[in-house]
Specification:
Shape: globular
CATH topology of the largest domain: Arc Repressor Mutant, subunit A
Distance between the termini: 49 Å
CATH class of the largest domain: Mainly Alpha
Oligomer: single chain
Number of helices: 6
Number of strands: 2
Strand order of the largest sheet: 1-2
Structural class: mainly alpha
Order of helices and strands: EEHHHHHH
Helix content: 55-70%
Strand content: 5-15%
CATH superfamily of the largest domain: BFD-like [2Fe-2S]-binding domain
CATH architecture of the largest domain: Orthogonal Bundle
Amino acid sequence: MYVCSCFGITDKQVAEHAAAGACTPRQIASATKAGTDCGSCVRTIQGLLGRGACPRRELLEKGRTAATVLAPAAELDKAAELSEVVAA
């Protein structure tokens, strides 16, 4: 079923992103653009996400950022290099 007709996003795609750690409509929007045009799908996305456990939220509550836990090590190395260049 299409959740976002503006960008052709399905409930299956929302579920896949949720399983990968997207816990809020805003995080789904970042990954898919769903909810960023007319906005009529935001409540549907909220309903699909429910109020269940969120792996990312649980990690944040333990004091770790989601990026340090979920991002591959190579991506973290690139981010460190970029921050060093920006700081210089």
